[in-house]
Amino acid sequence: MNKLKLAILLLVGISFEMQSQELDVNLQIRPRFEYRNGYKTLLPYGQEGTSQISQRSRLNFNYKQEDLIVKLTIQNTRTWGDVVPAAVADKNGVAVFEAWAQYNFTEKWSARMGRQVLSYDNQRILGEQDWGQQAQSHDALTVSFHNETQKLDLGGAYNSTAENVIQTPYTVASYKALQYAWYHNQFNSDLGLSLLFLNTGYEYAPNPNPANKLLVDYKQTFGTYLTYKKGKIDTNFWLYGQTGKSTDLQVSAWNAAANFGYNITDAFKAGLGYEFLSGKDSNDGSTVIKSFNPIFGTNHGFNGYMDYFYVGNHLNNVGLQDAFLKLNYNVNKWQFALMPHIFLSAADVVTPANEKLDSYLGTEIDATFGYNFKKNITVTGGYSQMFGSSTLEFIKNGDANHTNNWAWLMISVDPKIFSWKK
Question: Domain 24-162+171-421: which topology?
Answer without folding.
Answer: Porin (2.40.160)
